[in-house]
Design brief:
Largest interface: B-C, 49 and 52 residues
Structural class of chain C: mainly alpha
Strand content of chain A: 15-25%
Helix content of chain C: over 70%
Chains: A alpha/beta (312), B mainly alpha (250), C mainly alpha (407)
Structural class of chain A: alpha/beta
Shape of chain C: flat
Shape of chain A: globular
Helix content of chain A: 25-40%
Strand content of chain C: under 5%
Distance between the termini of chain C: 22 Å
CATH class of the largest domain in chain C: Mainly Alpha
Largest sheet of chain A: 6 strands, mixed
Number of strands of chain C: 3
CATH topology of the largest domain in chain C: MetI-like fold
Number of strands of chain A: 13
Distance between the termini of chain A: 31 Å
CATH superfamily of the largest domain in chain C: MetI-like
Strand order of the largest sheet of chain C: 2-1-3
Number of domains of chain C: 2
Number of helices of chain A: 14
Largest sheet of chain C: 3 strands, antiparallel
Radius of gyration of chain A: 21 Å
Strand order of the largest sheet of chain A: 6-7-8-3-9-10
Oligomer: heterotrimer
Radius of gyration of chain C: 26 Å
Number of helices of chain C: 16
Order of helices and strands of chain C: HEEHHHEHHHHHHHHHHHH
């Protein structure tokens, strides 16, 4: 659990983050959104003390994050950034091993961890471990960046626009991988982005920052239903509201019993994508299949329309 | 041009240089046409090999001192506690480069007397500038995302310096050292005007006795040394850059 | 930028417990220590019975009349105090100027005071304390100017004011008792003759190098296969030590003088200024050509495409787009050449080419350091002034966004 308590940051009299308080539940994905200069990145960087707050406190599982030196704190918190920040003079394996080496793990444990993470991120250890970052594609670099952040098995992973530099197709894949890994490892993720689609796709809870203040913090559906300010409204986009609602849950969550014709949808696609597929195929219903191929039921145009309506 | 031709030329240059230093008399017929009938064509007031080694020693000592001081200074002014000195140190480097080496040399003589010492000081001071400037460039142009990641993964200041900043800046620092050495090799010859034992002695002897052969052999030995050392450093830089995974960046 | 960086250096300094805490300036501490050492432990002036014998070092109080000595000590203490504390930059610059003016006046006074009446052999020269003070104040001035980030024109103005101040002191006769000026007074005519030769050599070879180097650079830019060959050759020339290159050129130029009709008439000779001029010219080519190539290569593709797109001819593109955009880089090359040439021109004296080097090498030969200074100081001043002027020009030619970034 991360408790942010009245945190404020001022630079030379300019308030960048203003008295923000929020509690982040363990094993969830929290996305901080806002425009450039809203203070979202500064807020994130105060959790691992890359930025020291001017006032207020942050507690991790009850302990003040100032109870240990900053560098020790950061070794216990994963950190992944836009443009990956891989060390160009070190191999993929050495990059991933950065924090374990700093923590003094033995070699066998480090090697095992590197192999495990490379496999988890679908990078063949034999092929990739000894490559240098510049020999990888953008998507591969980004995966290594996240793998490095997770190497010391942190409970908390901070991500600063981690997918910002990726093209849309690779980005969608990276987001799906991140969700799968989060579910697998149970890591608490705090992610900063300005991409609302990404926020709705990933978040259990969304925090909206505006001019240094936290203007709303809640589940995605709450934001759509009751935007706290006009700014939140604009950010979500009035015409986007029904689609935002649909992008929160998967087709699996909208399965109804009954038969349907056509190419089955994967249960993991968002309801928004399911709707899109229905409209495009011109059908009123499509079957939904589990990952192993068994048909779970169907999604219907009518059912999705109901789900997209303003919650009562 | 084919890839092996430069290597071949370099190897040939090295062989000729060594042959000339070990047994200059072999080259007597080549230089003879340049001098009057009874004048010696090969420097005869001392061993060319000894002078070359002394020349190299002077450059090596001065450069080593310059590397230690310049790199340390550049590291200091790029730390947060030394940041106040960064703009000033930049201006000083700028100003320092305007001091002509002859002036530095001449001004060091009253304090240090004649001989090797003023030469060492002049070479040291002159050698500082390129190394300092390059180290500064190397340390201040590191990719911000890499520095952020280094901090974010919990490296201490010292670990960041030694594990990330210096390795990444190393090719640029080496380029500075290379520049410094090449300048020093040429400048050391001027040291002979204040009686330092360098190859400048050969050149000056030639100028004084109107012996073009002396001037030529002194100048060419220094030129050959500079070319070979320049190439050697370039090769090391390339290897390091490749090893540092920076090949794509440069 | 969206994120205020990790705040190095400009940490907000809120005094936790009140306003009484005194804040020291880090560089100020260094300068104050230098001043203290120079004033208390180092000699201010050296007295010698004649120009060759070893000198007798005198501290401030010995070198000056009692009242003046105390006054100088008090002035230095005042400057040190201003420097030590965190004071406004303008005040610091003023303190530096005041310090420089003070030591300039008092060293002249020391010369008059120490020289016995009607003794023309005695020599008084500045000693280490004076030089350390000079260095400290110059450092302070450099730091203040760097912090103020003045516009190029202001920097030029400061240069003119400094040189003007020095000229006033020189012509006022205040320093006439100093040994360096005694060396000067004996050879004033020669001094200005050599100064003229020095400047002619440095500027003339630069001019020739620009005349040849610019077209060569453009050619190298347009004809890629030429580039490596030309640049490598010019690089190779740079590795030949200057005194050797000067010497090597004696032979071919001597041959030309004898065998080419009319060559001797226009001043081409084996020794003297001609080989020095050619050597400086050869050294100058590399920075000019290389920077022209780099500058032209750095012209944004889009700018060139746009120029082509609106129907500019090659010539219009070169003079209207490429040249103006490449100008700062080309000027940087010219700055390197000018500063380098001013320094290297001293070596011309070794082959009878004249210039300030004449005094330097004569001085070294006679172990007369005042004579060395007479050659070295003007060279340094000339190179320094040239660097400032060219830097200002470069900055004025740079695109607006670059302004104020170079210090």
């Amino acid at each position: 659990m991360i408790e942010i308590d009245g945190i404020t940051k001022r630079y030379d009299g300019i308030t960048v983050v203003n008295n923000v308080s929020m509690t982040i539940e363990p094993r969830t994905v929290t996305v901080i959104v806002g425009t450039s200069g809203s203070g979202k990145t500064t807020l994130l960087r105060m959790i691992n003390r890359l930025v020291e707050p001017t006032a207020g406190a942050i507690r991790l599982d009850g302990d003040d994050n100032r109870s240990m030196p900053g560098f020790e704190l950061r070794r216990r918190i994963g950190y992944a950034i836009q443009g990956h920040g891989l060390f160009p003079h070190r191999t993929v394996a050495q990059n991933i091993a950065t924090v374990p080496v700093l923590l003094g793990w033995n070699k066998a444990r480090i090697d095992a961890k590197v192999t495990e993470l490379l496999t988890l991120f679908q990078l063949d250890p034999a092929a990739f471990a000894n490559r240098f970052p510049h020999e990888l594609s953008g998507g591969q670099q980004q995966r290594v960046g996240v793998a490095r952040a997770l190497a010391a098995e942190p409970n908390v992973l901070l991500m600063d626009e981690p997918f910002g530099a990726l093209d849309p197709i690779i980005r969608a894949k990276a987001q799906a991988d991140l969700l799968a890994i989060q579910r697998l490892l149970g890591t608490t993720i705090v992610l900063v982005t300005h991409d609302m689609d990404e926020a709705f796709h990933l978040a259990h809870k969304i925090a909206v920052m505006d001019k240094g203040a936290l203007v709303q913090y809640g589940r995605p559906a709450e934001l759509v239903k009751d935007p706290a300010t006009a700014f939140v409204q604009t950010l979500i986009g009035t015409s986007e509201r029904p689609f935002r609602l649909l992008s929160i849950e998967t087709a699996g969550d909208a399965v109804e019993p009954g038969p349907a014709e056509g190419q089955p949808l994967a249960e993991t696609v968002s309801q928004r994508d399911a709707l899109s597929e229905l409209l495009w195929s011109g059908r009123a219903a499509l079957p939904v299949a589990a990952t192993d191929g068994t048909i779970l039921g169907r999604v219907t145009l009518e059912g999705l329309t109901r789900r997209a309506a303003k919650p009562q | 041009m084919r890839a092996w031709i430069p290597h071949l030329l370099r190897a040939a240059l090295l062989v000729v240089l060594i042959a000339f230093l070990v047994s200059p008399s072999w080259f007597d017929p080549l230089l003879k046409p340049l001098v009057q009938d009874n004048a010696p064509a090969i420097y005869n007031q001392g061993s060319l090999l000894t002078l070359t080694l002394l020349h190299l020693r002077t450059v090596a000592i001065a450069t080593t001192g310059a590397i230690i001081v310049a790199v340390t200074l550049a590291i200091l002014v790029t730390r947060s506690f030394g940041a106040e000195f960064l703009p000033l140190s930049r201006s000083l480097v700028n100003v320092g480069q305007t001091f002509p080496p002859v002036a530095v040399l001449a001004l060091a003589v009253p304090i240090l007397g004649f001989g090797e010492k003023p030469t060492l000081v002049a070479l040291f001071l002159y050698g500082l500038l390129p190394i300092f400037e390059n180290t500064l460039t190397g340390l201040t142009t590191l990719p911000p995302s890499v520095m952020e990641a280094a901090r974010g993964s919990g490296m201490t200041d010292r670990q960041r310096l030694f594990k990330v900043e210096l390795p990444l800046a190393m090719p640029v620092i080496l380029a500075g050292i290379r520049l410094s050495v090449v300048i020093s090799l040429a400048t050391a010859t001027i040291g002979s005007t204040v009686a330092a034992k360098t190859l400048g002695e050969v050149i000056i002897a030639g100028l004084q006795s109107n012996n073009i052969a002396f001037v030529l052999q002194g100048g060419l030995i220094v030129g050959a040394l500079a070319v070979l050392i320049y190439d050697g450093f370039s090769a090391i830089e390339r290897v390091m850059a490749r090893r540092a995974g920076l090949a794509a960046r440069s | 930028m969206k994120r205020p960086g990790p705040q190095k250096g400009s940490r907000p300094e809120w005094d936790g417990d009140g306003s009484l805490s005194i804040r020291f300036d880090k560089l100020g501490v260094v300068i104050a220590l230098l001043i203290a050492y120079a004033v208390l432990a180092a000699p201010f002036a050296t007295f010698r019975a004649n120009r060759i014998v070893p000198g007798d070092a005198k501290g401030i109080l010995q070198a000056l009349p009692a009242g003046a000595g105390m006054l100088l000590l008090a002035l230095m203490a005042g400057v040190a105090l201003v420097v030590l504390l965190k004071t406004p930059t303008r005040l610091r610059l003023f303190a530096a100027a005041a310090g420089l003016a003070a030591i300039a006046v008092f060293i002249g006074m020391a010369a008059t005071f120490l020289t016995p009446p009607a003794n023309s052999y005695a020599r008084v020269s500045p000693a280490s304390g004076f030089w350390i003070l000079l260095f400290s104040f110059a450092l302070l001035a450099a730091d203040s100017i760097t912090r103020m980030r003045p516009l190029p024109l202001v920097r030029l103005l400061l240069l003119v004011m400094t040189l003007g101040g020095a000229a006033v002191v020189l012509t006022s006769g205040l320093w006439d008792g100093l040994s360096i000026l005694k060396e000067y007074s004996g050879r004033a005519d020669v001094f200005w003759l050599e100064a003229g030769r020095h400047v002619t050599l440095a500027l003339g070879s630069l001019f020739a190098a620009v005349l040849v180097g610019l077209p060569l650079g453009i050619l190298c830019h347009r004809v890629a296969p030429l580039r490596a060959g030309v640049l490598n050759t010019l690089n190779l020339i740079q590795t030949i030590p200057s005194i050797a290159l000067f010497g090597i050129l004696i032979a071919p130029l001597g041959w030309i003088a004898v065998n080419v009709p009319g060559a001797a008439a226009i001043g081409i000779r084996g020794i003297g200024a001609a080989p020095a001029f050619v050597a400086l010219f050869l050294y100058s080519l590399l920075p000019v050509v290389a920077n022209t190539v780099v500058g032209l290569a750095g012209v944004p593709r889009e700018a060139n495409e746009a120029a082509r797109g609106i129907g500019m001819t090659d010539r219009q593109r070169l003079f209207g787009i490429e040249f103006p955009l490449a100008m700062p880089v080309i000027l940087t090359g010219i700055r390197i050449v000018l500063v380098q040439n001013i320094g290297l021109a001293t070596i011309a004296a070794l082959i009878g080419g004249g210039g300030f080097g004449v005094f330097v090498f004569q001085g070294i030969g006679q172990t007369a350091m005042d004579l060395v200074l007479l050659g070295a100081v003007p060279t340094v001043v000339l190179a320094f002034a040239a660097a400032i002027v060219l830097d200002a020009l470069i900055e004025m030619n740079a695109p607006q966004r670059e302004r104020g970034r170079t210090a």
